[in-house]
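re: that chain from earlier
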Amino acid sequence: MFRSMRRSRQALTAEQTEQILKRNTSGVLAVRGDEGWPYAVPLSYVYTEGRIYFHCAKAGHKLDAIAREERVSFCVIDRDEIVPEKYTTYFRSAIVFGRAQVVEDEAERRAALSAIAAKYAPGDPEGREKEAADSLSRVCLLRLTPEHMSGKEAIELVRAREKGTAPTG
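^ sequence. v structure.
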């Protein structure tokens, strides 16, 4: 169903791909928008327990698109270093294909919002829990359940890892 990576040597392992999702704070959600036009929107997110959660307003383009078609993709760029003298970039990224749904279950909504708050305000446990509780009724929470994930990096990074050296740019 999903294509295999053409440059398979540059493919990251499942664990490396998950680490990209865990350590980053933003990505781009792509949906089938109005009249079939692609719509891609940058979002903050949290990856927890094998799922990706987003919070958003209770109405809008992204929610309308997901209501029509729950299949989406989400891309996270982990590294994008331009190396002009080599006419290349040292990149690393992850892409997730899956189904996005509005989270209706109250316990899951609370857990997702708490996880988002913990990721973005790790040093303020009391404040983040209060903010999460206060905003729970005002926000929509989305869950992306992955069906396929892949990661890829520049061949220069692959070679450097194999040699045990870090490339400089």
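The first helix runs from residue 14 to 23.
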